[in-house]
Amino acid sequence: MIRNYFKIAFRNLLKHRFISAINLFGLTVGLACCLLILTYILNETSFDKFNAKADRIYRVTRSWFGPTGDVSLNLGAVAPPFGPLLKNDFPDIEKVTVLLPNGTSTFKYGEKVFNENNGVFADQNLFDFFNVKVLRGNPAKALSDPFSVMLTPELAKKYFGNEDPINKVIRLDRQFQFKVTGIFENLPSNSHWHADHLLSFSTLKDTAVYGERNLQTNFGNNSFYTYLLLPKNYNTKSMEAQFPAFIDKVMPMDNNGKQKTSAGTALALQKLTDIHLTSHLDSEIEQNGDIKRVYIFSAIALFILLIACINYMNLSTARSALRAREIGVRKVVGAQKFELIAQFLFESVLLTWVALLLAVLLAQLAMPALDALSGQNLSLGLLLKWQVLVPLTLVPFIVGIVSGLYPALFMSSFKPILVLKGLFKVGAGNISFRKVLVVTQFSISIILIISTAIVFKQLKYMQKKNLGYDKDYVVTMGYNSSLNDSYQSFRNDLLQNPSIKEAARSSRIPSGRLLDSRGAAAPSGDSVMPVTTPIKYLAVDEDFIPAYQIKMAAGRNFSRAHANDTASFILNEAAVAALGIKNHNDIIGRPFKYGNTKGEVIGIMKDIHFESLHQKIVPLIMLHPPQPNYSRLSIKLSGQNLPATVSQIEKTWKKYLPEVPFQYTFLDESFGRLYESELKQGTIFTTFAVIAIFIACLGLFGLSAFAITQRVKEIGIRKVLGASIGSIVTLLSKDFLKLVLIAAVIAFPVAWYAMHNWLQDFAYRINIPWWVFIVAGILAATIAFITISSQAIKAAVSNPVKSLRSE
């Protein structure tokens, strides 16, 4: 029987080549897209699961509350004292480890000098948490001693070539000597953090910036990513419930002892495997993914597969009249209904199996393109797991049965006496069901068109929005503290070039890492205003505001003419609002306290988008400290003769810092990278949306071609009676275009709801324009009309004599 099923299936596939080809092509493309999207989803959901103890590792996070109780700041890193104190107060915690990103350091070995910016200070017990493969050295001791460093093989090769790197000494930042104690393998791409060198955390106790006491008492520097190892199946909620009392115990009370610290800040635990997809905090060690993207791409995969299945159902039921006599004869000679259903389902499953095999080949060919679009190292090898392969082998049966069941039930119900007498006609119910399927296809297509338009409109809005500062022609680079004593000479040399307008130093730059916070701020005096909203700070020199052309709302900028400006503050408008002050002049010249620093407010600047547009503009204080700890240098250019100007900057740099590599970037490029992930995801979304629309049009092409072939005699009679080509094309097209109109009415509210929710992820976003829906509807109708008219015109211009010859 199976052999007979194969024979009949192949005979019918070859007999109806056109419809079979459309079905096979649609299913192949649909399944290939599903395989590609499944690979992406499997990669996104696999982050950090390679760690043997992943289910027991939790990251400590910290949040702050505003006066109304709303969360105003949410960090993935905490202050350094929390790790040891948590271990001391909670005996259930088995181990604690801490990571501190190092930023940019200058490495020197012999004559080789490079800037390295992918380092992390790590505890010696790092390897008890994360599955980092150590190739050389003892993982239990490699990071135990101060001034120890471990390198990846690539970094070791860069500095030592073929020499044995173990126990070699690398000089960091022209002042520290680090001994190489081990070589470790790069972390997998599906890790939420990466590093090419690990510095021993114990080193920080011997540095001026941190020091042992600072690590034990500084609750304001929240830059330390702290992880806990808990017992298996531990109830973290019970521990979190004790955190408020713990905070009140270990931290001083706010507002001169009038308020418990836990009223303004809180700790929480975050599961390691949840970080990549569900953590969107104000500070992450690396850029994360988004679970919403996984849901969106899962939906697209299902949409594409659904459209391909609808094509099969539509075309199979449409061509049912062509197989009516075959079914009638088979019933007369004794074929049972269940045998006919089995035959038709077998054909559907067989076609799907062929499509799946072709889809695997097509997906493999398309994988490099998806890698380039996503920026990830994806591979179909992710599918080669029994947990994936077993369900995947069921796909042809599921898809085949879903797409073939209705046509099988419909065709097996034909009455042989009507069929063999030539009285069989496709029922109105069947035609109505096909119309429902077409409406479903184009509803999905219109939703995808609208979504694509809004995604790119939001991305364009973020790139073009006025940020409150001028980001064009600003060269940025790391600032080296060795320049402190000679900085003014360095700056003066730069400004001798007329193409260089300004040079400024700061602790951060716009579009860079999120700003740090020292806690709350308040005007001081007889009565200290209680403020629980944390205010971020930025250390700058006198030239920062002019370099970025930031506008002042009141007061003045820092000035070299005022010696006391090193004890002064400039606030942004958001900070003034957070303090509850309505009139800017009420705070100018007023004594002010921020953390442990006391001074005077000298100016209010206009709000600027210092961070990504994903974040709201935060309260910000600018400081001009007497002992600067700058990390970034910004040089504003005129925009004329850029190559020569950059070359002049490099010469000046090497004059003052001959041993420090010159590396720079333009600020607008850094700003663009803030939304690089969204742009890539938008491109992938658009690509798959276009494919979905193409498959829908493919089905409509086949359906319209088949429908028109059933009306060739009618078309011939109309032409003989004088009908024009235009009127015939309109006649043949209008029924399908009505379905597209109905699809648009259904799609509009669904698309609005979906995109309204998506836009909530952006603090600054567009309003959904009404015209996008009209354009999407017109575009869908145009695409449908072009698809249909290609067949309609062919039928309209054909010779009526040929179609009427048999009459």
Automatic annotation (TrEMBL):
Which organism is this entry from? Segetibacter aerophilus
Spans traversing the lipid bilayer? 21-42, 294-315, 344-366, 386-409, 439-456, 683-709, 739-756, 768-788
Residue span(s) of domain MacB-like periplasmic core? 20-242, 444-649
Establish whether keyword Ubl conjugation is in the entry.
no
Principal subcellular localization: membrane
Q: Where is the ABC3 transporter permease C-terminal domain?
A: 299-414, 687-797
The answer to whether the entry has keyword Metal-binding is no
Task: Name the chain's protein.
Answer: ABC transporter permease
